[in-house]
Write a structure and sequence with these properties.
Blueprint: E1 8-11, H1 26-37, E2 41-44, E3 64-66, E4 71-74, E5 79-83, H2 91-100, E6 105-110, E7 115-118, E8 126-127, E9 138-144, H3 147-160, E10 165-170, E11 174-179, H4 184-195, E12 202-205, H5 212-217, E13 220-224, H6 229-232, E14 237-239, H7 246-257
Parallel strand pairs: 1-2, 1-12, 7-8, 12-13, 13-14
Antiparallel strand pairs: 3-4, 4-5, 6-7, 6-9, 9-11, 10-11
Length: 258
Amino acid sequence: MGKFSGTLLASDFDRTLVDHSLVPSKEVSDAIAYYKANGGLFTINTGRSHRIFDPDPALLNAPAILGNGSMVIDWENRDILHLSGIGDEGLAPLRDVRDFFPNVAIEMHAIDDTTFSIRREEGFYTEVNDPADACRPWVKAIIEGEHIDIAGVQKFLAAYHRNSISFFPTTGGYLEVVRCGVNKASGMRWLAKHLGIDMAKVFAVGDGYNDVEMLEAAAIGFVPENSGPEAKSVADRIVRSVDDHAVAHVIEILDSMF
């Protein structure tokens, strides 16, 4: 038992927990170790899929939330605890994107670690012509292209497919697609229930558009100074930037509260 017992801290990964080096700073690692040593549970809630996510398992003492809430996984044992992936309901939206937006590429991240693609010219992808040829469920799909094309895809999906899938822009010019109703908040709620933690003791920190629901669902939503306007608009507390050890600042604040 410790002062943080019964609490869960969920952190976004890129530009929140880590900078471009993709490794937490010593200050952040030490702060997380202190939080865990005093009874807190720490997890990462990221848009990354399981095949491109490889944190130090020692950093976590709770299952990780991946694919923008689509998957909860015991990272140390690689056991999938929860999956809310895209099934056949994703076929029509992605076929329309393929047919009406010829300048964008589409990736479909399958549960078996295979990434299927349409119009992807390089990389570790299995090329297909029809989304139906990509085995399902998908943890998520990614649509990539120029800003003007992605904006058009987003408007199109909102007009014709918003009841079939969920989607949101992410840093780097991507539009990410997940199962309808899935987001980082839904994954975080599932994990909190699984762990027996009241949402009143769940805290979150994130910097991007895809973190908004998570920040709103948390008891306190912390947002680094380097964040975009969407995250800042729902912040309960602004903390130092990722370059100034944002997650360590979050834990300093929690330490003063308990």
